[in-house]
Amino acid sequence: MSIDCKMAWRNVWRNSRRTGLTLAAIAFACMLLVFMLSFQFGSYDTMINAAVKIHTGHMQIQARGYHDKKDVRLVVSEPGRVADVLERTGGVAAYAFRASAFSLVSSRDRTWGCVVMGIEPSREAGVTRMKRLIRRGSYLSEEDRNTALIGELLARNLRVAPGDELTLLGQGRDGSIAATVVVVKGIYRTGQDLFDRKAVQMPLAHFQEVYAMGTAVHEVVAVGHSLNAVSTLKETLRSAIAGMDPDRCLAVLDWKELMPGLSQGIAMDLVSGLIMYLLLIMVVAFSILNTFLMAILERTREFGVLMAVGASRGRLVKLLLIESTIITIIGVVSGIIGGSLVTLYFQTHGIDIAGASEILKHYGISGLLYPRLSLLSASIGPGAVLAITFLAALYPALKVRRLKPVEALTHA
Description:
By secondary structure, the protein is of the alpha+beta class. Helices cover about 55% and strands about 20% of the residues. The strands form two sheets. The protein has a six-stranded mixed barrel with strand order 2-3-8-5-7-6, surrounded by four helices. The mean pLDDT is about 85.
């Protein structure tokens, strides 16, 4: 260890109380940043997984333009070939076929405009939580034909219950009139009001027959093993689908394209959070700025003596910067360790959001939220603290360059 480092270490602990308070401020800020960023990222993952498991899946394969137009004629004409691609692609946990069409849905008392969806009950249960969101009645089975699931809000609007009949009237793929009568088998509640008010689900085979779909579908919904692997899986599927679809009739969309509102909401929340974290970091920066300004004022005569015996101003600046670096690094490392330990504890046990458990359960989320510790959440906050506090220490350190030995020696 060089003589400058030894002197800096000694000077750091010359006033142990002030150093301890500064270290505590830096460590607490870093610990809070690590935990809060981990909590935010973990909450986002929970929200996204809950949302995609209600309806969209991690990604969908559709006819190009279908997502924007919802035209019943824009179909995946050979879903079997798409299924073969998905079966061969590693990282696909489950997939299901769907078809949908806008229709008028009538009960004995009322009529409502809805989106009627054809689903495969067993496969759908693998890509969504719909089976677990049934509040009254029961889920569809493979043997069902003239049955349907509807949302709780739609059931209230139509004034129906399980066992009641609904009449569906729409347009088939070939332009013909599509009409049928179904019995309400189950009523679900997802927590997404628009979906609960507008969606009717029926067996895919019966939908294809009523709406003249043949074997075609509108969506092939897929989920991966983890949210982090979705972007890689999307590119893999795009390449594979392009190989079987030379005319580029099919598109692969991920959850960000399927639910832009959710993606934008997360981005806005993250920006507002980062602003708050920046304010916290600035408070810490002013704390260390104050510490070093006080240190320079107290040690002005000392600096005068050192310059009088031949120490250069550059060396004194270097000494002060080493001192600030020591304090900052010790505080940052302590904060990272503390924040990581707290995060890992709650990552295992979860955080109970008091008063929000019932609301969260409507979205398929348990009453607990789990932080997610990652390299990004453990480094971005402390890294910003390290950079800003170091910059804050530059100003008092550079003040030494303007000191004159005679004036410093006579400083009161």
